[in-house]
Design brief:
This is Enoyl reductase (ER) domain-containing protein. The chain is of the alpha/beta class and about 375 residues long. It is built from eleven helices and 16 strands. The strands form three sheets. Strands 4, 5, 6, 7, 8, 15 and 16 form a seven-stranded mixed β-sheet that branches. The protein has a six-stranded parallel β-sheet with strand order 11-10-9-12-13-14. Strands 1-3-2 form a three-stranded antiparallel β-sheet, with no helix packed on it. The structure holds zinc ion (2 copies). The site of one zinc ion has 5 residues, from loops. One zinc ion binds next to α2.
Length: about 375
């Protein structure tokens, strides 16, 4: 059970709890159950009772302070799915009972330059409110309270147990693929894992020529089943040489950590093409080196991409619903959250971990 109390979420006994979270009290610690009461709902917020939520490796990076220091207790989690059970006075777009999802972004101001041009995921004006998982409580909980603006209606035709990862992994790969879309483009998806398997499906469904690029040759059959028309094993020198300079874009869903790896991958890109990064490795363990020569002499663009805007989220969900693009998930019960987290951190889940909340809020009270 939790011992550290958060300044906003009152730690109470189980029978007085409005909700239960899995909380971390320090880096590299086990999650503990945190029965709590929410702070008063803001006029622009909704409270969601979750049906399922997803785990993302970003949560592990945050909890373990791989990127920057955080405060504890911490309840991360940013693949949120459930029904609206309470709404603030200003919320008109949702009714009680509506099924909604939310991802990595908590709020945006709607007024700054980025918001006005539609890049509201990059809003720099909401400080601590920008991201879901910190410093407020995120999705590793039976209930979540967040601004309605960044909650998205989920069509009831999308299977709920497969929906949470779409709100982070899905939008993370859909948005850059769409932004760099071209009908005849040749796209390489680097890494077939939690992000990569979805990226192959999205890229193929968008109609681009899609090649899966992996360190393991035995993933070829699977990658082709997801829609890849070609496959390259990075350890196969012949395949790598043949693909030299053929891609308009590589979407990197794996972390390249050495300059040799970066050079090998950028060699696959046409001059003037793009290397798009959506993952961030543990910055405490990696010293990033860039292939400066290729970047300048062949005008390769190295670009990052952060989840997606609200508009891109709406589009992604519509696209998913039309093309039936779902992640491959392993499912865990709420009570066995630690099993899910451990699998993500130390195992190799195939490919996303999803937790079923079910009637945990009632059974945990007893
Ligand atoms: Zn994520
Ligand atoms: Zn803004």
């Amino acid at each position: 059970m939790a011992t550290k109390e958060h300044s906003l979420y009152k730690l109470v006994s189980k029978d007085q709890a409005e909700a239960f979270a899995w909380s971390f009290e320090g880096p590299n610690t086990e999650a503990v159950l945190y029965p709590f009461q929410f702070p008063p709902i803001r006029p622009d917020e909704v409270r969601i009772q979750q049906t399922y939520f997803g785990l993302c490796y970003t949560d592990c990076h945050l909890v373990n302070q791989d990127w920057f220091p955080i405060s504890y207790p911490s309840v991360p989690g940013h693949e949120i799915l459930g029904h609206v059970v309470q709404r603030g006075d200003q919320v008109t777009q949702f009714q009680i009972g509506d099924l909604v999802g939310a991802g990595f972004i908590r709020d945006s101001c709607g007024k700054c330059k980025q918001c006005i041009v539609g890049n509201d995921q990059l809003c720099g004006q909401v400080g601590n409110e920008h991201l879901i998982p910190i410093p407020k409580f995120g999705g590793f909980a039976t209930h979540v309270q967040l601004p309605a603006k960044w909650a998205f209606p989920i069509p009831n035709t999308i299977p709920q147990h497969l929906a949470p990862p779409l709100l982070c992994a899905g939008i993370t790969v859909y948005a850059p693929l769409k932004r760099h879309f071209g009908a005849n483009k040749n796209v390489g998806i680097l890494g077939i894992g939690g992000l990569g398997h979805l990226a192959i499906k999205f890229s193929a469904a968008l109609g681009m020529r899609t090649t899966a690029i992996s360190t393991s040759a035995d993933k070829e059959e699977e990658a082709r089943a997801y829609g890849a028309t070609d496959f390259i094993c990075t350890k196969n020198q012949e395949q790598m040489a043949k693909a030299n300079g053929t891609f308009d874009m590589i979407l990197s869903c794996a972390s390249a950590n050495t300059v040799d790896e970066f050079i090998a991958y950028t060699n696959l890109i046409k001059s003037g093409g793009d290397f798009v990064m959506v993952g961030i490795p543990a910055l405490t363990k990696v010293e990033l080196q860039l292939p400066f020569f290729a970047l300048v002499v062949r005008q390769i663009s190295f670009v990052g991409s952060l989840v997606g805007s609200r508009q891109e989220n709406y589009e992604m969900l519509e696209f998913v619903n039309k093309h039936k693009i779902y992640p491959t998930c392993e499912q865990f019960e709420f009570e066995n959250f630690k099993g899910a987290y451990d699998k993500l951190l130390n195992g190799r889940p195939k490919y996303r971990c999803v937790v079923k909340v079910g009637n945990a809020p009632e059974t945990l009270k007893q």
